[in-house]
Amino acid sequence: MSSKRLWFVVSLMLVLAMALAACKTPTTELTQQPEVETEELVFGMLLVGPYNDHGYSQAHYDAGLYVEENFDGARMVYVDKVNPADRPGTTADQLAEELLAKGATVIIFNSDDMKDAAVTFAQAHPEVIVIHASGDNAWKDGQNYKALPNLSNVMGRMEFGKMMAGCAAALTTETGKIGYLGPLINDETRRLASSAYLGARYCYEKYRGENPDDLEFKVTWIGFWFNIPGVTSDPTQVANDFYDKGYDVVISGIDTTEALVQAKQKTAEGKKVFAIPYDFMGACAEAENVCLGVPYFNWGPAYLSMLKAADAGTLQPTWDFVGPDWKDINNLDTSAIGFIKGPALPADAGTNLDKFIAELAGGLNLWTGPIKLQDGSEYLKAGEVATDFQVWYLPQLLDGMEGQSVSE
Questions:
Q1: I need a surface site. Which of 54, 89, 275, 406 has the fewest CB within 10 A?
Q2: For 37, which DSSP code?
Q3: Which CATH code, of 3.40.50.2300, 3.50.30.30, 3.40.109.10, 3.30.360.10, is assigned to 159-296+339-392?
Q4: Burial 301-323 (b: 16+ CB within 10 A, else e)
Q5: Model-level pTM?
Q6: What are phi and psi of 147, to 5 degrees?
Q7: What is the pLDDT at residue 2?
Q8: Which residues of 50-63 are buried (b: 16+ CB within 10 A; e: fewer)?
Q9: Mean pLDDT, to the nearest integer, of 169-197?
Q10: φ/ψ of residue 88, rounded to 5
Q11: What per-residue confidence (pLDDT) applies to 39?
């Protein structure tokens, strides 16, 4: 073999060897990388109603989906329809055991009427983190404080959302008669109905130039968060009664959308009536032509923060009363309370509602005296601003409101 030919063969072999080495290097490096295992956090939810109720329970369920989307390794399990009608003979703490069996290490009780069950479960399972939405057992200054190291509470300041609802109703009503479709009677529902009344009075006077004492505001309670045939009053009938008696706007305080559905039906019959649903930001889709807007809970950011802290082992017992992000109340990453204006809200009313929201953002506090309770007794002196304690434990509806303040 000539020297030239030998040189060519040697050179070719060197090139091939280098190419093979280059091809093998990345494969070798990849196989040497350690595998990273992500530890899963399973959190369980107990929902008082159906997970897709277009109301309160769906707002919580959607918050669980938000957590899954924003927290790698988090997974939700849930039990819905946790109430005496759908699950007779069982309690929320008993149903929480099902979530434990599915691997949950954090349990969320989502309704005020689950207060006792949340405490019972937390005491029985000190190794499990318990979060109760709307309760007060972790509030050191509250009336029902329980010193439990694994129990926390979170509640949105829906008082602001209800003020917006009341304002939208007062800006729209042509009869001066506003109905409030209430659930059961307790501290929470009294303060929310009263917040709607305060918002209605303020906007009726400030933006419409009317005498707020001429505004009629009636609350009718059905007896639970949603209809239980044979147990509660029928919310469909209650809404119809309002519309048939001249109340042209009904604000809903229940978990479901009967007020909106009946407003749509009455409008089809020739009445000019409207409704304001509650809890779930997508509720107006049920009947857009009669929906003035919806105040809604956005539980996602609070749950995300608490679950990340629980996962890190840093969550301490806390009572969080979280409000709107006044920079943008509809920012789903930051605001616990929002308000979506409905398609039926008149343009001028929408403009004035925006002004009212800006006033709230600027520090307007309608829980400022003088305010009297329904029986005429003094609640707040002139210029006195209510504390969280006074608002949370409101003992009666306010002077000027029609309806029961306590259960019979």
A1: 89
A2: P
A3: 3.40.50.2300
A4: bbbbebbbebbeeebebebbbbb
A5: 0.89
A6: -80, 80
A7: 41
A8: bbebbbbbbbbbbb
A9: 98
A10: -60, 140
A11: 82
